[in-house]
Automatic annotation (TrEMBL):
Annotated ranges, domain DUF3857: 77-238
SUPFAM superfamilies: Cysteine proteinases (SSF54001)
Protein known as: DUF3857 domain-containing protein
A Pfam family reported for this protein in Swiss-Prot or TrEMBL: DUF3857
Transmembrane portions of the chain: 666-690, 702-724, 744-761, 773-793, 805-828, 840-856
InterPro entries: DUF3857 (IPR024618), Papain-like_cys_pep_sf (IPR038765), Transglutaminase-like (IPR002931)
Signal peptide: none
Record bears the keyword Transmembrane helix: yes
Lineage start: Bacteria, Pseudomonadati, Pseudomonadota, Gammaproteobacteria, Oceanospirillales
Superkingdom, natural source: Bacteria
UniProt keyword annotations, A-Z: Membrane, Transmembrane, Transmembrane helix
Domain Transglutaminase-like: 289-361
Length: 1001
């Protein structure tokens, strides 16, 4: 007990030393100075080029310069860096006004040379006016790693948009643990363009450096002067790397040039082996632990498991990685006494225990970031960031990580992530060893629903989960951070998202049997059935399975899409019925592809009144290549379509209110109206064809109409009447000239042929000896230009008026009438008295089309729902006050995007978001109650999207809060504005989450 308290006290003193040292400049900024650049630095002149596109974050990167002197025993290694960038907007200004420079106080000094602002060609020196603060960085403290890095914070005054900022500094010194090894990777491409890049490496070694490239063909210029070797890279307008989100950590598309003294992996092993050999050993304490393990386990596999569990559970993780401690492991005996250590310290202790047991074990250097791509990199000592243990025993090999926890005491069940390749130190393989960890992560879920004959009675729901490998490890780690009660409440909240009225019937519990961890839960579901007319329905959702059938947010990809692997998840849902009046068809479905295997089986046992839904997902790879994204998406969508399973029963007494019987639903009403419109159009077209045949025997002439009648016909045909009118006039011209022109073609492309038509009518009008300003070529040209603009007026008006609530369709119909009216008036003057040509078919068409036009205009003015996603500013103040009164959204919030799935009144349904909040509300037709969900974007944990696949389906946007509550937004895919809605929502969400993270820090 005393040692426990001493450990806590020591931890507190370490934290006090690391974090609460007085942050004065003199103490915290040791190794910081100001002065000129070192003499060996070669002056490099920045020469501006042409303006480029693709700047990111409000900054245009003009120059990236790095000059390195690899050093000799009497000349320490130095790195000179110089950057130049242009400030484009406020975001760039906020970012560039503060600079962060880093150096390690254990072995480095930092010298600041230059901070200049270039404004209107004038250079303004900012060194004297800088606000400088230096403090311990410890960015990895949350992972219990402390490395002694100092962060120097520079605040630049009077920096403005349009300015250019140039700064340079030098770090002197290198970690002595690297001895004579030298390796540097020079990045030559980024996610943003860089106008100019200059790299220079000066090497004073006895032999030239090894030069290798990765994902680039950039050339390196080398020169030798005596014993000095110099290497240079000069670039202009670098390539832009296009990356996607949700990619594996190792999927780096950037290009690099490596310069190194390391020629083979053997060199790295020879460097690392002595450090580990010195630390691996024995002591009285280690011998005592070894003896205790032998007493507990007679077999070697049991001893391996106990040794691993001992280091995992008794040696807490803490990394004091200052200076050489970044790579030099602590002796095993000292780690055992301290009872703490980092990955290399815990690995050395585990190896010491295993070798004491006569078991072969070695340290294995791995990269958690580069991972599976490590074998493509040139050999280097600084590519590794983690150490695990490689064990060989009885013809089997094991990869073990003593920094993990809760892995049990059966070695075959221990989970180990696959880092692709490892450098095993001490085996003298002189090459990377491919990792092949055992696949032992399984999750088996069994859900049982007991349905009563009386639908009003609650449903009993029991569920159990059998976890192995990573699943069990993760569960226990989660339990350590909370309590059984909190974990039980989170699971209950999860199921409440699927089944209303879910409450726990017994406490949440778990037990561990070998490598199996089994949880048990029991619930009562009070409101199991959902009403739909005269039916009661329920859908069973295998939520865990669907969590692995994930779709990428970015479907157009250049990067691979990361998958969780290796896992096998099985979920069996069994529905037990009390009555015999149920019937289901057996069904089997399988989706087999290169990425995963999914299987679903539906089996109904009528004798036992039991429906069993069995589903299984098995991952086959950890990523989807970018070229295979479409195949993967199609496979996931096929599988997801099979996951949910719905059942229904009829109400014992079906009742339908008179109001529901009188008013049809929106779909039925829409289809009825469309059917009436189609029937009327068919009648009108038949009548028109008959009339056309009759007119073929009458004398032809230009087609005159009273102006009011022309406007009326344009309205009832939604603007398409102008095509028929143009066709009749071109047909007359063809008859008059006996030419072979195509009237239908010229009317269809009326925009192109408008001026020729106007010009011909004007010439015929003048040939009759009449004079009119409308017949002048200048007016004809102006009318043609006006007609051209009018044909694109709807989109143009929307852009000019910022999508305000206006009847765009009505304006689109009326605006082309202005230039057409000029031609019509000339034709009317030629024909004298103009007869009316309205027929019964026109009035019939008007009875249908005018109400339709009115409906469209009221939608576009947003007097009723528009049927698509709209900007929030078009929502009327009365509707905003309605949302405010209902508690959905404060009236003064800036509503960004909104969609209503209602037919006539947005007060019965709405989905939208502001810069801070997302919401969904609806009026339930069955009980006339008003319901809504809303959440602050900062409290949203995830946003899942299922885009609609058909025109009559909505896109589903599932909002998942930090408390694991979910609600769904329904968004129309009209004009693909559902993607605009989703992308904008996610952008606002990320902004709020980043702001929350900044406040937390």
């Amino acid at each position: 007990m005393r040692s426990h308290y001493l450990s806590i006290l020591a931890s507190g003193l370490i934290s006090l030393f690391l974090f609460y040292s007085p942050p004065t400049f003199a103490e915290a900024a040791r190794g910081f100075s100001q002065g000129p650049a070192p003499e060996w630095v070669k002056p490099h002149r920045y020469t501006p080029g042409s303006e480029r596109e693709g700047a990111h974050g409000g900054i245009d990167y003009l120059l990236v310069e790095s000059q390195r002197r690899a050093g000799t025993p009497d000349k320490p290694r130095q790195t000179f860096r110089r950057f130049r960038e242009r400030i484009l907007n406020q975001a760039g200004l906020d970012k560039a006004s503060e600079l962060y420079l880093y150096h390690n106080q254990e072995y480095q000094q930092l010298a600041l040379h230059q901070v200049d602002v270039i404004r209107d060609g004038q250079v303004i020196n900012k060194l004297d006016s800088l606000v400088i603060n230096s403090f311990r960085s410890e960015d990895r403290a949350s992972s219990l790693i402390y490395d002694g890095v100092i962060r120097t914070h520079l605040i630049i005054d009077d920096l403005r948009i349009g300015d250019e900022l140039e700064y340079s500094y030098t770090t002197t010194g290198s970690n002595p643990v690297y001895q004579q090894l030298y390796s540097v990777g020079l990045q030559v491409s980024w996610g943003v363009p860089v106008e100019q890049v200059y790299y220079r490496v000066v090497w004073d070694g006895p032999a030239p450096l090894n030069v290798r490239s990765l994902r680039t063909e950039v050339g390196v210029t080398s020169a030798q002067t005596g014993d000095r070797f110099e290497y240079e890279i000069r670039l202009r307008n670098t390539d832009v790397i296009k990356d996607n989100s949700e990619k594996p950590s190792w999927a780096d598309a950037s290009g690099y040039v490596f310069l190194s003294t390391v020629s083979a992996w053997q060199d790295v092993e020879h460097w690392a082996a002595p450090m580990y050999q010195q630390a691996i050993g024995s002591s009285d304490g280690i011998a005592a632990v070894v003896a205790d393990i032998r007493r507990q386990a007679p077999t070697s596999t049991g001893q391996i498991a106990l040794a691993l569990a001992y280091v995992q559970d008794n040696i807490r993780y803490l990394g004091l990685e200052m200076g050489t401690n970044s790579h030099q492991p602590t002796p095993a005996s000292e780690t055992l006494e301290l009872r703490y250590g980092d990955c290399k310290d815990k690995t050395v202790l585990l190896i010491s225990l295993l070798r004491g047991l006569g078991i072969s074990a070695y340290p294995a250097l791995v990269s958690t970031e580069t991972g599976k791509d490590l074998h493509n990199y040139p050999p280097s000592h600084n590519l590794f960031d983690h150490v695990i243990t490689y064990v060989e025993n009885a013809g089997k090999s094991y990869w073990l990580d003593p920094t993990r926890r809760n892995q049990g005491q059966i070695i075959e069940g221990v989970y180990q992530p696959d880092y692709g390749h490892a450098l095993v130190v001490g085996m003298q393989r002189n090459a990377l060893t491919p990792m092949q960890p055992q696949h032992n992560s399984y999750l088996t879920i069994r859900d049982d629903f007991y349905l009563n004959a009386d639908a009003a009675q609650p449903v009993t729901f029991t569920t159990s989960s059998d976890m192995q490998g990573w699943f069990a490890e993760n569960f226990l780690s989660r339990l350590e951070r909370s309590s059984m009660q909190e974990l039980g409440e989170s699971y209950q909240n999860y199921y409440q998202g699927y089944y209303n009225g879910t409450s726990a019937s017994s406490p949440f519990s778990y037990e561990r049997a070998g490598q199996h961890l089994i949880t048990r839960e029991q619930y009562s579901i009070a409101d199991f059935w959902e009403e739909d007319g005269d039916r009661l329905e329920q859908t069973f959702y295998p939520g865990t399975i669907r969590n692995y059938l994930v779709l990428p947010e970015e479907r157009e990809r250049t990067s691979p899409f990361a998958l969780i692997h290796p896992v096998t998840v099985s979920q069996t849902m069994t529905i037990h019925f009390e009555g015999d009046d149920w019937s289901f068809d057996n069904h089997a479905f399988a989706e087999q592809n290169a990425f995963f295997h999914y299987q679903r089986d539906v089996v109904y046992n009528k004798g036992e009144r039991r429906l069993t839904l069995t589903q299984q997902y098995t991952s086959l790879t950890d990523h989807v290549p970018a070229a295979d994204t479409a195949d993967y998406i199609a496979a996931v969508e096929r599988a997801r379509a099979e996951t949910n399973y719905g059942i229904f029963r009829y109400k014992e007494t079906a009742t339908t209110s008179s109001e529901e019987g009188f008013w049809p639903d929106a779909y039925t009403l829409t289809m009825t109206l469309l059917g009436i419109c189609a029937a009327v159009l068919c009648i009108v077209l038949i009548s028109w064809f008959v009339a056309m045949r009759r007119e073929e025997n009458t004398p032809q002439q230009y087609y005159p109409l009273p102006l009011w009648q022309f406007v009326f016909l344009m309205l009832i045909t939604l603007g398409t009447y102008s095509l028929f009118w143009a066709y009749r006039n071109w047909k007359y011209i063809k008859t008059l000239d006996n030419s072979d022109i195509m009237p239908a073609f010229r009317s269809l492309f009326a925009v192109i042929w408008f001026f020729p038509l106007y010009n011909r009518v004007a010439k015929d009008y003048s040939a009759m000896g009449r004079n009119s300003l409308l017949a002048s070529p200048l007016i004809a040209a102006a009318a043609a230009l006006t007609y051209l603009l009018a044909m694109f007026s709807e989109q143009l008006l929307q852009e000019l008026l910022n999508n305000r609530a206006l009847p765009y369709t009505l304006l689109y119909i009326l605006l082309p009438i202005l230039p057409l009216a000029a031609v019509l008036l000339l034709i009317n003057h030629q024909n004298g008295q103009v007869p009316s040509r309205l027929r019964w078919r026109h009035w019939l068409l008007a009875t249908v089309m005018l109400p339709l036009l009115a409906l469209i205009c009221t939608q576009e003015m947003y007097l009723i729902p528009a049927g698509g996603v709209v900007e929030g500013h078009v929502i009327s103040q009365s509707d905003r006050r309605f949302m405010d009164r209902r508690g959905v959204l404060p009236a003064d919030d800036n509503l960004l995007y909104f969609y209503s799935d209602a037919f006539f009144d947005i007060r019965s349904d709405g989905n939208g978001f502001t810069g801070e909040r997302v919401f969904s509300y609806w009026q339930d037709d069955s009980d006339d109650n008003f319901y809504f969900h809303s959440a602050k974007l900062a409290d949203v944990k995830d946003i899942r999207v299922k885009y609609s696949e058909r025109w009559d389906e909505n896109t589903l946007v599932t909002i998942v809060t930090e408390s694991d509550k979910e609600f769904v937004l329904y968004v129309s895919n009209d004009n693909k504005r559902d993607k605009l809605f989703v992308n904008s929502l996610k952008a606002q969400w990320k902004n709020q989450r980043q702001a929350l993270s900044a406040q937390t820090l």
